[in-house]
Amino acid sequence: xxxxxxxxxxxxxxxxxxxxxxxxxxxxxxxxxxxxxxxxxxxxxxxxxxxxxxxxxxxxxxxxxxxxxxxxxxxxxxxxxxxxxxxxxxxxxxxxxxxxxxxxxxxxxxxxxxxxxxxxxxxxxxxxxxxxxxxxxxxxxxxxxxxxxxxxxxxxxxxxxxxxxxxxxxxxxxxxxxxxxxxxxxxxxxxxxxxxxxxxxxxxxxxxxxxxxxxxxxxxxxxxxxxxxxxxxxxxxxxxxxxxxxxxxxxxxxxxxxxxxxxxxxxxxxxxxxxxxxxxxxxxxxxxxxxxxxxxxxxxxxxxxxxxxxxxxxxxxxxxxx
Length: 322
Prior knowledge:
Number of strands: 10
Oligomer: single chain
Order of helices and strands: HEHEHEEEHHHEHEHHEHEE
Strand content: 15-25%
Structural class: alpha+beta
CATH architecture of the largest domain: Alpha-Beta Complex
């Protein structure tokens, strides 16, 4: 059975061209580019909680990095460096090798150096810290939304949560449909290019990890505003449109989480600029609502139907302790 150090040497020691000192010492050494500030985020993926235990290990590696890249996208930051901490029930080299391949393939696609981490025995768990760079005055933040702003979202919503519902037997999908939904759950596509293109265009941004209502609500809270979203404008895949009339699918669409799309706000005068940014990033975007003044301090998002009447939302987002 390989040792901890064997696993690190074989699967997590790679060239780090953007790093002063990478894996092999007590700490890595990095140097930010001139005029840039560092954006730092961390996400933990726990087996059985954030991914199914029978998930393809390459997909687990992909997702572990992808969810962190999504945070960089939401800040308008260029991802540069990552660390990876892993707890393994046993030293299963085949699983580790496949997981590492998935992780490193995505890292190379985005120019990210793996510069360190930790390996230990324990319940299956991957924890990634990512560090990116962004000009200080071009960061995308949650606290910049203004009344009158348009609300936009990238891609489509709900498919990943639909996959979770299907795996947990709360809805039945056809085999081809389940495969399509599982792809969205296991291999999210971080919208890094869109985040960079939205610098100087968007006023606020967040990645949709816990569900649209919950994450847009964070923008509202930080910006001291409210939001109105038209449910009929929400972008859906062909698969989601087949099932969206069912309560479980509507819950997935609005509050299921795991989309890793970008939700952002921008002034109406920036609509053409948003469309150009989306075109450059080759990422579809949809205008779904507007920012309004918060009535009596109610900084939250409201979903309305075609008649402008509020839609009851039972599942407002993923909560680890909810």
